[in-house]
Model the fold of this input.
Amino acid sequence: MELKQYLNEMKANVEAYIREYFEPKIDPPTLHEAMKYSLFAGGKRIRPVLCITAYEACGGNYKDILPQASAIELIHTYSLIHDDLPAMDDDDLRRGKPTNHKVYGEAMAILAGDGLLTEAFLMFTKNLDNNIQDKLLIEAIRELAACAGLYGMVAGQAMDIIAEGKTPQKETVEFIHKHKTGALLKASVMIGGILFGASQQQRVALHTYGRNIGLAFQVVDDILDIVGTTEELGKPKGSDYAKMKMTYPAVYGIEESKQIAAKFIKEAVQAADVFEQRSGWLKQIANYLLERTN
Ligand code: GRG
Done:
C-alpha cells in the first residue's frame, strides 16, 4: 500500500468515528454546529493517525484505540479555534475557510473550543471494553493533559505571544516549537505506545521519534509560511513574518532551517528502527512531514 492510501484510510476511520460521535443532538444547536464546523473543515488528522501508527508499530490494531486517537484531534481543533481568535493570532482564514469566530462570533468560538477540549477527555474514556488496562489508560490521559496544557501546548502558545516582535533567539524559538506544536504531536505518538503497553525500549524510541517529528513539523510550517502559496496553505502566506513571530527562519534563515528540519526527521527515522519490520509507516510519515506543502 502507498503512504497516501494508508493516510487516507486511517484519516477516514478517524473521521467516521468523530462524525458518529457528534451525530446525536447537542443543545444548544449553535454550539454543536460551531464545534462540527471546525472538526470537519478539512484537517489532515495527522495526530490521530500518528497515534494509530505508533500503536500498530507496537503490534496493535487501530480499531482498539479509535476513541483515544480521535480525542487528540478534538484538542488540536480547539487549539486552532482559539489560536485564530482576535486576542491571539487574529486570523480570518483557516484551511481556506472563514475561521470559527468569523462564522459564529467570538463567544461561541471560545465555547466551541472549551467544549472540544473538555469533550476530548470524555471521548478518551469511551469504549472501555477494548482490553486496554485502566492503568495504561490513566497514564495515557496524563500524557495528553501534560502535553496539551501547562507543560506543553498552552505554555508554548503563551511564549509565542510573549515573544512576538522581540529579537529572535534560539532558546526561545526552540521552547515555542517544542511546546506549542511539538508537545501534542509527541503525545500522539507516545499515547499509541502507552495504550499498547509498549516496552521501555519502544517508549524511548517513540519519545525520540515524537520529539523530532514535532519540532520538524513546526520548522516546516515556518518555512511554508514564507515559500508556500496561499492556496496550498489555506491562509495568507507571510502571516508569521507580518506578525513578527519568532520562527526558525527568523533565527537561522530559510536554508539552515531546511537543514535543521531534515536533521530532526533523520533522527526520527533512525529511532523508528526499533520497530524493525513494523517501522515502515512511522518512517514514511516522518519523511512526508518534511516534504509536505500544506
Ligand atoms: C490556543 C492553547 C492554544 C494553543 C494553540 C497549535 C497552536 C497552539 C496554534 C496553531 C498555530 C499554528 C498554525 C501552528 C503551526 C503548526 C500547526 C499546529 C499547524 C496546524 O496543524 P495541522 O497542519 O492542521 O496538522 P490541520 O489543518 O491539518 O488540522
Q: What stands out?
A: Strands lie at 93-94, 97-98. The domain at 3-291 is CATH 1.10.600.10 (Farnesyl Diphosphate Synthase). Residues 43-44, 46, 79-80, 82-83, 95, 153-154, 157, 180-181, 218, 221 surround geranylgeranyl diphosphate (CB under 6 Å).
